[in-house]
Amino acid sequence: MYREQLEAYFQDKQDMLVDAVCRLVSIDSVEGEPAPGAPFGPGPAAALEEGLKLAQEWGLITTNHEGYVGTADLCDKEDALHILGHLDVVAPGEGWTVTQPYQPKVVDGLIYGRGTDDDKGPVVASLLAMKAVKDLGVPLKSNCRLIMGTNEESGSGDIAWYFARHPFAPATFSPDSGYPVINTEKGGLKPTFTRSWPVQEALPRVKWLHGGFRINVLPGDAEAAVEGLTLHDVHPFARDITARTGITFTCTSQDGCTVIHAKGEGSHAAWPEGGNNAVTGLIALLCALPLAEGPCKEALNQLNTLLPHGDYHGRALGIAQSEPIAGDLTVAFTLLEVTETGLTGRFDSRVPLCATKENCENVARAAFEQSGFTFEGEQEEAHHTPADSPFVQTLLKRYEEYTGQKGECLSTGGGTYVHEIPGGVAFGCTMPGFDTHLHGADERVKIADLMLSAKLFAHIILDMCAE
Question: What is the CATH number of the domain that holds 64?
Answer without folding.
Answer: 3.40.630.10
